[in-house]
Write a structure and sequence with these properties.
171 residues, disordered N terminus, alpha+beta
């Protein structure tokens, strides 16, 4: 039996996060973590939840964890950032690539997410062309509260969508 609490908590410093965390530091870490995990094809670890996929990136007292489930062209999951062993930021997401193969969408998204790493999947409007595909991300809010939609079009026809929402949950 999996020790659920142990595997779901980051194995870092046991110091409590009693202070407020500067959200600019969270975003700096988030942007680095995303390029080192999905967008950069790295960070794969043994998943804590059977049947899921899990990506992680750690730097000092920071840990990024992305846990998701994938099947039949649909996926859903959540990203969480921990500072000093406390969750300080999280984002849930849902996507549909049923009109493409997993290899196609991974290739398109990885190029777009690396090229637009400072703005994609945040609270800004982002566009990028990759091969015959147009990547568009429309977000609103701030690091404290954000939501958005991401789509990929081919020949003006939507072939992928991704919805996300999240924000600062730290102390």
């Amino acid at each position: 039996m999996i020790d659920f609490v142990r595997t779901m908590r980051p194995q870092m410093s046991m110091v409590s996060c009693a202070m407020s965390v500067d959200t600019s530091k969270i975003i700096t870490f988030l942007l680095a973590a995303r390029t080192k995990t999905y967008a950069g094809s790295g960070g794969k670890v043994t998943p804590a939840l059977e049947g899921s996929k899990q990506l992680e990136y750690a730097e000092g007292e920071w840990l990024y964890r992305d846990i998701y489930n994938l099947g039949q062209g649909l996926f859903m999951g959540f990203e969480t950032i921990y500072f000093q062993n406390e969750a300080v930021w999280s984002m849930a997401y849902f996507g549909d690539f049923t009109q493409m193969t997993e290899e196609e969408i991974d290739r398109i998204l990885r190029v777009a997410l690396i090229a637009k790493q400072d703005t994609a999947r945040l609270w800004q409007r982002v566009t990028h062309t990759v091969e015959d595909y147009e990547y568009i991300c429309e977000g609103t809010g701030s690091m404290e509260k954000m939501k958005g939609d991401e789509i990929v079009k081919k020949a003006d026809r939507q072939v992928y969508f991704f919805q996300y929402a999240g924000g600062y949950i730290g102390k």
